[in-house]
Amino acid sequence: MSNFLFPPALPPSLPVLGSNRRFPVHRVYCVGRNFADHAREMGAETPLEVPVFFSKPADSLVIGGGDMAYPLATEDLHHEVELVVALCAGSRGPVDRKTATNMVFGHAVGVDLTRRDRQAEAKAGRLPWDVAKGFDRSAPISALTAFEDWRPSDQSIWMDVNGERRQSGKLDQMIHDAAAAVSALSRLFELRAGDLLFMGTPAGVGPLVPGDDWEAGIEGLPRLRGHILRD
C-alpha cells in the first residue's frame, strides 16, 4: 500500500527521434532577449554579456503540440518559436563551454507561449513573470533529436500562423549560444540530467486566437504543429 494521499503525477518525458526510449524532464529554463531583433521589438535593451533567465513548470510542456485550449486570464496570447536544448548530465557548480557542450543530449523545437498582457502588467509593476510565462500548457515541444544527429549552427528558425510566416531568423543570430547559456545557467542553479533550456526567439512574435493553426520549425528538426481550440 502506498503512503501517498493520492497517486503522484508521473514526470513529463519527451520522445526521442528514432528510439523507443524517452527523455525524463527535470526543469524547464528559458533564455530571455537572446535575439537582438526581438529585444528591440519588445522595447528592451539587449544584454550582451550575461544571459537573462526565467523558468516554466515542467508540467507546462505540451508534447508534440496538437489541439490546445486558449489559456485562462489573458486576451493577448503570443507565440515565440525557440530552439530547445536538452541536458543528459548535471553539475553542482559552474562549468566551462566545453563541459557545457558535453552535457547536451539533443535538441527540439519549442514554442514559449506568453500571456503578453500579464507580462506587461508584471513589467509595469516590477513584478515576477510567473503568471505571464508559467501557465498551463505554455510550452509546446517536439520530439528530441540526439546531438550526434543534429547540432545547431546557422539553421533557419521560423513560425507560421494560418499559413502566414510570422517569425523568421537564423540560429547564429542568437546572442548567447547553447554552450554559453548552459555555462551561465550553471552559475545560478545545480543543473541535472533532464533539464531543458529554451533558447530565445527571433523577432515577429504575435497573437494567437481561437481557431488559429500554427506551425513552428527549425531546419533539420521535426516540425511542431498546433491548433487553438474555439470555445
Structure description:
This protein is of the alpha+beta class and 231 residues long. The chain has one domain (13-228): Fumarylacetoacetate hydrolase, domain 2. 14% of the residues lie in helices and 33% in strands. The strands form five sheets. A six-stranded mixed sheet has the order 4-3-15-8-9-12. The model has no long low-confidence stretch (mean pLDDT 95).
Looking at this protein, list some descriptive labels.
five-stranded mixed beta sheet, 231 residues, Fumarylacetoacetate hydrolase, domain 2, 33% strand, 18 strands, single chain, alpha+beta, 5 helices, six-stranded mixed beta sheet
How many β strands by DSSP? 18
Order of strands, widest sheet: 4-3-15-8-9-12
Helicity, in percent? 10-25%
CATH architecture: Alpha-Beta Complex
Low-pLDDT stretches: none
Q: Beta fraction of the residues?
A: 25-35%
Mean pLDDT: 95
> Given this structure, which CATH class is correct?
Alpha Beta
